[in-house]
Each structure stands twice: as structure tokens, then as C-alpha cells.
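> forwarded from #structure-qc
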């Protein structure tokens, strides 16, 4: 079978965590999820164009997104457990996709990129990343101008960003920026300075160097970040 979208992984993840005793290590969670979904060893090794396992990438993102929604929590970096809200969601869903998930799946069906357009999609992603970088640089430069002049240029920047986002959405893609959010292994990013911290340090994303690019199936390109340690 093909690897399910990250949205379709959410319910079986909640199901496993609802039965688990305490927090579960992310690697164990992925292993048990693969069993539930009948993912073969070969399928679990299938790689994204940007590198990394497609299955692990989607499982990580599904877990992180549910953590962001308050359905699971991470008492320790790399470990997850279901919350009471997650238990309620699991009981209420009864295996049936929520309305928001149904809408997202219908939208994915309508906007999914055709395989023969993969090269075009890859070029679009490259342009989106470079556009995002340019926007960040442009914004820093504009902030050095006086208020009246800065306002005019910021309006032009917002128009540019709206056009980029619109073109991405038309092709089933979106930019995800996680700057300022707590860091954990479920976020689809590569941390340039992760070696500077200990396993028990509480970390947040201090700076996005490159954004995450997603489509309806999951992460198309992982982001790059710099972390910082914060006190709980």
C-alpha cells in the first residue's frame, strides 16, 4: 500500500497513545504506527526528494501538529503522551474523519500536483524558499527606514508575500514558519546548532533559516532553524 497522508495518520496515533502506559518515545511510536498501517520495511525507507524517510516525516508531522493542537503533549523531548483533549477527540471521532479533515482531503484531491509536473513543482518550491528569504531580508532593511517611507515599502512586501502564497496554494503547497515555537523531533526541520545543547534542555526555534514547505500529503521540503535554550 502507499504511505498515507499525515492527516490519515492522526487517528491511529491517538489510538496507540490512548492505550499506552505513559509517554512513548517517538521512534517507538513510529514503529507501532507502521504496524498499524501495514507499512512494509521497503515503504518505510522510501525517501523524499529533499532526503529523509517519507513515512517518518509524515508521522513526525502528524504528531507535532496534534501537539500544537493540544491533543498530545511532550513531557520530555522526543516522548509523547495523549492529553485529555486527545482522549475526547479519539472517543468522539470513532474512526470517522472530522469535518475539517474531510474538507482538507477534498481540497488535496482537487489541488494535488500531478506526477508529470513534479519538476515544475520543485522549481516552484525553490522560488518560494528564495522569495521567503528575500522577504525576510527586505523586511530588515525596511525597518531601518523612517516610518512614512517604511510603511509604503511594507505594503509592497505584503503584496509580494500574498502573491507568493496564492500561487503556492493554487498548486497545493504552503509555507510553514515555526519561529518562536517549542522545538521537538516532530518538527520537520534540521537544527544547525542542536549539538550545542543537552538532551534535557528546553529549546525553542530562535530563527528560521529556511521555511518548511508542505503539500496535502505532508512535508515536501524540511526547514532549517537555529535554536536557543529557555528556562521552563
Amino acid at each position: 500500500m502507499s504511505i498515507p497522508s499525515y492527516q490519515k495518520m492522526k487517528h491511529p496515533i491517538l489510538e496507540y497513545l490512548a492505550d499506552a502506559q505513559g509517554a512513548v518515545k517517538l521512534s517507538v511510536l513510529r514503529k507501532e504506527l507502521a504496524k498499524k498501517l501495514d507499512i512494509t520495511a521497503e515503504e518505510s525507507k522510501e525517501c523524499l526528494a529533499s532526503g529523509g524517510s517519507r513515512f517518518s516525516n509524515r508521522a513526525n508531522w502528524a504528531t507535532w501538529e496534534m501537539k500544537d493542537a493540544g491533543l498530545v503533549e511532550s513531557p520530555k523531548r522526543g516522548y509523547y503522551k495523549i492529553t485529555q483533549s486527545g482522549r475526547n477527540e479519539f472517543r468522539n471521532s470513532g474512526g470517522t474523519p472530522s469535518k475539517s479533515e474531510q474538507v482538507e482531503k477534498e481540497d488535496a484531491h482537487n489541488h494535488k500536483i500531478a506526477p508529470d509536473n513534479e519538476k515544475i513543482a520543485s522549481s516552484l518550491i525553490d522560488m518560494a524558499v528564495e522569495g521567503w528569504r528575500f522577504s525576510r531580508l527586505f523586511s530588515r532593511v525596511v525597518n531601518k527606514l523612517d516610518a512614512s517611507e517604511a510603511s509604503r515599502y511594507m505594503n509592497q512586501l505584503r503584496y509580494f508575500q500574498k502573491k507568493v502564497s496564492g500561487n503556492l496554494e493554487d498548486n497545493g503547497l504552503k509555507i510553514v514558519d515555526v519561529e518562536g515555537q517549542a522545538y521537538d523531533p516532530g518538527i520537520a526541520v534540521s537544527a544547525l546548532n542542536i549539538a550545542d545543547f543537552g538532551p534535557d534542555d528546553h529549546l525553542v526555534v530562535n530563527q528560521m533559516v529556511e521555511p518548511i514547505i508542505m503539500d496535502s500529503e505532508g512535508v515536501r521540503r524540511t526547514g532549517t532553524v537555529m535554536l536557543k535554550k529557555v528556562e521552563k
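QC bot note: The radius of gyration is 19 Å. Confidence is low (pLDDT under 50) at residues 96-115.
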